Amino acid sequence: MKVVVDASNVASFGRKEGFKAKLKYLLSLVDALEKRNDSFVIIADASLRHNIDEKEKYIELVNSDFIEEVETGNNADHFILNLAEKEHAKIISNDKFRDFSDEFHDINYMRIPFSFDGDEIILKESEKPKKVKNILQKICDEILINIEKSRFDVYSGKKGIEFSPLNIAKESIIRMDRFSQTNMETKIEGVISKIPMFGKVMDMIESVEASAPHIIFVLVHPKNYKEAVENVGSISITISDRLHLEKNPLIIVRNDLFMKPEVFELNIIYSDEVLDESPFDIEVIINPHDASFIKRNSRSIASTIAGRLSSFKFPIVSVKSNLTLENPGDFDIHLDLKKKNHDKSHGKLDNKVQDQ
Known about the structure:
The protein is of the alpha/beta class.
């Protein structure tokens, strides 16, 4: 581990007014770091040489570059923070550096506090970095934005409807019927303008009512996934009976990271517009603090994207930690497209009716 030592803070541990800082505290820390095989640099402000108990020995250590002394007029605290951030190092100090919290946002988990038991130093644990709220949703949002930039359609509904198998069936019927009526009226107008015969019009109505081979992606919170899957058969039959369809719609349940427990969304699409597989793989480049969490949830990311892209198969989601992304919540997205040219004419039924 790389460590930056705040020499003035360590040497001044427990210091009372009228007493000098203690060089032995610094040497105790050095001994502990060497036993741990940590690489370290010791930074002191220019005033410490005037306030240390073993001044001559201290100056020898400065002259030998064992201790790096910040020049007079420069702020040692800022130098320490800047060096630690640049080198991805920890800081051994009890100073909370509050004056620099606006510039350096991750001081608490950079800093290792300490105490002494006699002359022996005790190094404590850094604070764990705070998790960024909704980072999974933010990653999915960024992926979907990149997908749309690549000329693919995605389903964007996120409000959610109260979850129950019956509500899934009802909402599917409402949306599919609304679209079929609009689509039917357009076709009928064309027929009437050419063949104004009642029988022909009725044949067209029956044809439109009967030909609706749909795929319904039910987007749910993982908590509701099992119940939704157990009821897909009943939901499909209910929809088919109510709309007089020749074929039952296929119901596909997807865990969706935008959905809260007890709500769902529907992405409804014609079967010939569904993608057999995701046209790309996804690489999530993430900061080290969130890497393990994102890896554990990579399948949920894949499920969310597949449901909103209308893909039968999940994209491959790989997660790579990158030290240059220093702060919790930092990430980049890369799409590895398998198809460079894709027809964006996905006439997604649900996109047409969800806001009506």
